[in-house]
Amino acid sequence: MSNDRKRLKVGLAAGITAFALLLTGCAGSGNSETPKSSGSAATVPAGVDTNVVNYALPPNATPNWILPIGIAGKMATHNSSIAQSLWSPMFTFDGSKGEMKLDLETGIADKMEYAADGKSVTFHMRDMHWSDGTAITTRDVEFWFNLIKANKETWGGYKEGRLPDNITNIDYTDEKTFTLTFDKVYNQDWLNSTQLTSIKPLPHHAWAKTSDEGKVGDEDRTAAGAKAIFGYLSKSSEDMASYATNPLWKTVSGPFTLGAFDNAGKTTLSKNEKYDGPDAAQVTTVNLLPFTSSDAEVNLLRSKGIDYGYIPTSMIDQQSQFESLGFQIEPWKGWAITYMPYNFNNPKLGNTFKQLYVRQALQSAIDQPTISKVIWKNGANPVYGPVPQDIPSPYLSESQKNNPYPYDLEKAKSLFAAHGWKAGADGVLVCEEAGAAENQCGEGVAAGTKMDLTMMVQSGSDEADKQFAAMQSSFRDIGVAVSFDRAPLNTVLNRTAPCESDAPDCTWEFSYFGAAGSWYFPAYPTGERIFSTGASVNFGNYSNAEADKLMDEALTTNDPKTMQDYSALLAEQLPVMWLPNPVYQVSVIRDGVTGTTQDPTANFFPQRWGWNK
Questions:
Q1: Does pLDDT of 184 surpass 80?
Q2: Residue range 54-96, pLDDT digits in tens
Q3: What is the mean pLDDT of residues 274-301?
């Protein structure tokens, strides 16, 4: 496909318009044509080492997976961004340069073109090399494809019927050219932004083995061999203590190599001097610094130990203080939604959560506008459905936009009362009318079931803690007791997984991992990975046949009405508990730092960070 992208359909044009609006909104005052967050033109302060950039990772967002094939529980953005800086993808589809579009500069492909009938796409690869001097070829693409095909149930990017299932043939024409043929014609926005960006050539000559001392071969061309190789690579990726020393991770194609990695998660990226692509690192060292809390990060920021960090939204009114220290404030908004999954398979409360009136009552007891304004200090916006809504887009329905379930405690109380729930001596609601009739608790809800909920919540965010305190109070007012199980983000994600009701790990009821947004979308914001039946990241096992149908149709049509219908349906059906969507972070960027245009999909590109020398 040519760079001017003449073949792209109406849907992408609308998506680009929406993202242009988003990025203009992020830019603050000044010239809206050049986002302010593209970097500071200020003079570099005296004494600054312009060979180094120190970047603050979000609180408790500790890197814990290096293999550039993500699995469930290891899909955090910081993991994928680090992997992408070490192993270049074929291309990205991002907004890191000021507008959402195909970005061939980041990757190994220098050309991609769809066939006239839309059923195939051909890639041509640059003449690039691995850090050990070996040429990057289509054999490395084949190696990646063989691994994900044989291990698709483990791959976090998998959904039945999608990649790799929808590829009927791959023709490796020569060492630099290959063609993918699809089982049918798809929406190219969706293909580019959610499917083809997954392709990452991996070093066949160094990784196609099953042990440290094993011999490299072509076993990946069999399913059994590919499973064995993936098992070895995955086990190696679990050994975080060896990241900086394991020879596996030293064979890279990206602008950086892994310089160091410690037990706390501090990651040092060192410029890959052997990199021969078009997106070379601007500094020799990038330090990615982990923190257990935003307070710890802010303390180091004030002492100028961080060049590119953040402050909690509660400190937005202290902007002048940080500007006086030589920083700029840049809100990093995201193309995202924030939510808390219900575990519909929880053995105690799963059947209760399956009752729509229960979800309606709980949603009606959350005062999202006030929480966004007061607790997040306008650093978050309400979420009423499955489509990002902070900016206009052709995908957002009027139903979602206008909030089907505004804050209304009396409505919440009446919904429970109308279905056979009564307050016990402690004021907590108990199901007294078991059964499936209209005035009873609902199918599968046993008499005596108590509305006593436990919410697993990521720690480290003062705003999230205050948000849940406010929710706990309003829930108590309607007879719902809430307690919290707080843990670091990685722990919450590891404990949040689709499960069967009789499984020992299926005891979780709610899970919150949204202090920086729960789910960041590609440009085309379909929800098949998080809301379709059986999807690997559909943590709560939500299932709705009508929604599945709309999500499937959205992948093959360019009519925005399909997405609008999907938006309206899930806004009304409440597959999850919708919660205010924070900006990814309120960035604080040191004067003189350049290249920090902030991608709305939450990826970061450390190779572009530098100093205004």
A1: yes
A2: 999 988 889 999 999 999 888 888 999 999 999 999 999 887 7
A3: 96
Instruction: Tell me the two tokens of residue 573.
Output: 């059906």
Q: Yes or no: say if 120 and 182 are a contact pair by the CB < 8 Å rule.
A: yes
Q: Tokens representing 556? A: 């093959």
Mean pLDDT of 596-605: 87
The C-alpha atoms of residue 447 and residue 434 are separated, in whole angstroms, by 5
Quote the strand ranges of 388-440, DSSP E.
Answer: 421-423, 429-431
- 536 and 159 Cβ atoms separated by less than 8 Å: yes
Q: Specify the range with the lowest mean pLDDT, choosing from 86-100, 104-118, 175-189.
A: 86-100
> Tokens 């192993």 appear where?
87
- Which H/E stretch holds residue 257? strand 256-261
Q: What is the pairing mode between strands 452-458 and 481-487?
A: parallel
> For residue 239, how far is the Cα from the chain centroid?
23
At 464 the three-state DSSP class reads helix
CA-CA distances (angstroms) from residue 536 to 153, 158, 474, 540? 8, 7, 33, 10
User: Where among 214, 236, 251 does a domain terminate?
Assistant: 251
Strand 52-59 and strand 285-291: the pairing is parallel
562: helix, strand or coil: helix
Within 10 Å of residue 135's Cβ, how many Cβ atoms? 14
For tokens 């199980």, the residue is: 485
Among candidate residues 203, 219, 251, the one where a domain is terminated? 251
DSSP structure class, residue 515: T
Q: How many CA atoms lie within 13 A of 335 on its CB side?
A: 31
Instruction: Note whether residue 174 is domain-resident.
Output: yes
Query: What is the per-residue pLDDT for 95?
Result: 78
Low-confidence winner among 227-241, 309-323, 403-417, 484-498 (lowest mean pLDDT): 309-323
Calpha distance 250→606 (Å, rounded): 18
Neighbours of 545 (CB within 10 A): 8
Cβ(519)–Cβ(337) below 8 Å: yes
The residue among 390, 396, 341 whose CA lies nearest residue 578 is: 341
- Do the Cβ atoms of 9 and 562 come closer than 8 Å? no
Question: Among 337-346, 430-439, 565-574, 584-593, whose mean pLDDT is lowest?
Answer: 584-593
Residue 8 has pLDDT above 80, yes or no: no
Domain carrying residue 402 = 336-582
Ranking 59-73, 172-186, 404-418, 563-577 by mean pLDDT, the lowest is 59-73
248: left (phi over 0), alpha (psi -120 to 50) or beta: alpha
Which of residues 46 and 570 earns the better pLDDT score? Answer: 570
153 lies in a domain? yes
CATH number of the domain enclosing 103: 3.90.76.10
As a whole number of angstroms, the distance between CA 510 and CA 119 comes to 41
- The residues facing 341 across adjacent strands are 576
